[in-house]
Amino acid sequence: MTTESSAWNTCDYSHNVTFYYNWVGKTISVVWTTRDFVVIGLGLMVCLIVILANLLVMVAIFMNQRFHFPIYYLLGNMAAADLFAGLAYVNLMLNTGPWTSMLTKKQWYIRGALIDISLTASVANLLAVAVERHQTIITIQLHSTMTKRRVMLLIVGTWAVSIIMGLVPSTIWNCECDLDDCSTVAPLYSRRFLIFWAVLNLLTFCIMVAVYTRIFIYVRYQIRYTSRHTSEMRNSQTVVKLMKTISMVLGAFVICWTPGLVILLLDGLLGKASHANTYEKFCLVIAECNSMINPIIYTLRDDEMRRTFKWILCCLCRRSAGQPRKLSSVEIASPQPKALPYQNALLFTKQKMYKIVKKKMKPPSPPKKKNITGLS
User: Fold this and answer.
1) Residue 357 lies in a domain
2) Per the structure, how many domains does the chain have?
3) Residues sharing a CB contact under 8 Å with residue 139, sequence separation 6 or more, in sequence order
4) Which CATH number characterizes residue 34's domain?
5) Which domain of life does this protein belong to (predicted)?
6) H-assigned helices in 64-147
7) What digits encode the pLDDT tens for the residues 313-328?
8) pLDDT, tens digit (0-9, with 9 covering 90-100), for 243-267
């Protein structure tokens, strides 16, 4: 028995993709089924929306001078990651089902690496945006003090980490030398790697929760302080808007990512007993929806972004109709964008505190000299 187990644990790179699927009990469809058509059709439709929506975001940020600030550069990078996720998912949809048996191991690893890179980049960008917003609000600034160089380093670092995570399974962390460690969701992947990847994403989620919670507590404290100087309506609008943003960000992440993360954890912990491959394709579609929801959360709540979207779409309609394109205020360099309501309240607090301190530090005026001679 020991000899047989050690024989299976030796590195044999001659096995093809079908061998690993048969080993974990995952069936490769010989003919197209109704389930395959439904999953692929739904997946391609979601991918089309993801690609178009994020492309529109990138064009809007490039065209409008009001968006040339660090926060919008990060949003543009997140849109690029989500667009890449849409393209990677199209590649997955076109290489699944009965086509899987025709893939070489190299092609199969590339297919999985594209998904890993794109999804890791999307999550990393969500965290980068959360950190930037935290820095901006805590320091009571209209815009982040990060230079363009730091923003570019952050963007490059995000993609570097994503590429490394995508290459790990195909280079050093797979089950080709340990068949008992093969995953049922991704038969060439190691179950331990899937556990690591799922826990890493859950940790990122916890960090985002902590960041936004600290922002909310700080802003609520400042609102209580400024309630004596601002109207109650402004305070209520500030709290409502902040709560809506936090609920949308965290809610979208939980709804879209929790099913996939649970499937990965169950597959990594239980293996074949988890029956994870029954729901994996539907979980992938739900996770991909996060890339479609991100542009809505981070950009469509911005009035200026909505106007830019309308201007771009109108230009496309005029061009298709053969009408000349009209210049808009979007293309003209304009002043800095307006502050958010809670930023206005916090800035008012800072100015008020500065006036109080300056008044206390002002030296007393010297006493007037008495007229000794009595002459006027």
Assistant:
1) no
2) 1
3) 145
4) 1.20.1070.10
5) Eukaryota
6) 70-93, 105-138
7) 888 887 766 665 554 5
8) 566 667 777 877 888 888 888 888 8
